[in-house]
Amino acid sequence: MSLDVYEEAGRPQPTEIRLNSAERTLEVDFENGRSFAFTHEFLRVESPSAEVKGHGPSQRQYVPGKIGVAITEIEPVGNYAVRLKFDDGHNTGIFSWSYLYECGDRYEEIWDAYCEELDRRGLSREG
Fold this sequence. Notes:
The chain is α+β, with helices and mostly antiparallel strands and about 130 residues long. The chain has one domain: NE0471 N-terminal domain-like. About 25% of the residues lie in helices and about 25% in strands. A three-stranded antiparallel beta sheet has the order 1-2-3. A three-stranded antiparallel beta sheet has the order 4-5-6. The longest helix has 14 residues. One of its GO terms (molecular function) is metal ion binding. This is Gamma-butyrobetaine hydroxylase-like N-terminal domain-containing protein. Keywords: Iron, Metal-binding. InterPro entries: GBBH-like_N, GBBH-like_N_sf.
């Protein structure tokens, strides 16, 4: 999916988004030359939806068992985001360009914190 978008408060904008179903990744290229490859699992468990993030840090949900989840559809939302639809029925997360960029920039930190929290709660990435 090629994108023609306006600049959001000086943040880099995506120039292309590619769904790689075989690798279960979503690849996002930004205008500043940075590219990120997100696993479908990462995007599902870090969905910016109220279902996952809640309405504040204390309401954050740690979603286990999503290692095999897949993105089934990418739906543009205006000029600022995409809604990702997953094969487990989740479809309420609207991923803004700035959220995707931040997730890419902090991928390892975010992923490590998620995995540590699953371990702490006795939960598993496996289904």
